[in-house]
Amino acid sequence: MRLLYAIVVGLSAGLAIAPAFAQSPVSSSTLPGVHTADASSSAISPAQVIEKFSNIVTDAYTIGAEDVLEITVWRNQDLSKTVQVRPDGRFSLPVIRDVVAVGKTPSQLADEITRRLKEYVQNPVVAISVREVNSYSIFVLGEVVKPGKYPLKSRTTLLQGITIAGGFTPVAARNQVVIFRFGENGSGMQTLTSSYDDIVLRGGIAGNLELRAGDTVVVPSEAMVVFPGQPQ
């Protein structure tokens, strides 16, 4: 009888301890390369951090001036910041100071920050999230259903840009589309033309230009277009 009682007591104690043991976080001292931690952060892996702060844009997105970035350095709140890219294309972080962001994808920027932090932090894990896209916008004007300014989050062609603006109106001169584009380093202005029929019906893929930040696409009406030999 005493033996049976001892077995029952032992099983009850084991069942009470097991859930508490299963729920207790892993101590930071068991993780190599970690200097400081608290109980809440030790249960989160680097992969989970990167997944949590995954980009709202595609991997091909190129960061531009005035974009807002959330930079997360795993298990290091002092280095994790939300920053806005300055007009000079840079932003600042503690320890490594100025970082050039313009012209890089989020993954390229994360790799650079990781490389530079290795001088100060053991095994840094960096995730970049684009919180606001303020730099990569185009203007689509004229005979489209919804003219206006449109932020772009990935590479976008002329036809895709027109589609974003709702497509052509019935009176659009779709074969006389004009793209106004700033020159290199923002100097000067280029004027490019394209034809919808050439792109779609005649295989003129080159006319389906890849749009750039700051491009203005104008779709005139048929009444505005003057053809050679036609009286003005």
Which keywords apply here?
5 helices; Outer membrane lipoprotein wza fold like; 22% strand; 3-stranded antiparallel sheet; wza like fold; alpha+beta; 5-stranded mixed sheet; disordered N terminus; 23% helix; 2 domains
Architecture overview:
The relative contact order is 0.12. This protein is elongated. The chain has helices at 2-23, 46-52, 106-117, 158-164, 196-200, and strands at residues 68-73, 81-84, 90-93, 97-100, 126-132, 137-142, 148-151, 177-182, 189-194, 216-219. With 232 residues, it is α+β, with helices and mostly antiparallel strands. The strands form three sheets. The protein has a five-stranded mixed β-sheet. A three-stranded antiparallel β-sheet has the order 2-1-5, with helices on one face. The protein contains five helices and ten strands. Mean pLDDT is 78; it is low at 1-42 and 50-55. It has two domains: 41-132, wza like domain (wza like fold); 137-219, Roll (Outer membrane lipoprotein wza fold like), CATH 3.10.560.
Total helical segments: 5
Could you name the ranges where pLDDT drops below 50 across 5 or more consecutive residues?
1-42, 50-55
**Largest sheet, strands/sense/barrel:** 5 strands, mixed
Give Rg in angstroms.
28 Å
Number of strands: 10
Quote the beta fraction.
15-25%
The sequence of SSEs as H and E is HHEEEEHEEEHEEHE
How many separate domains make up the residues? 2
Q: What integer is the average pLDDT?
A: 78
Determine the CATH topology of the largest domain: wza like fold
Shape descriptor reads elongated
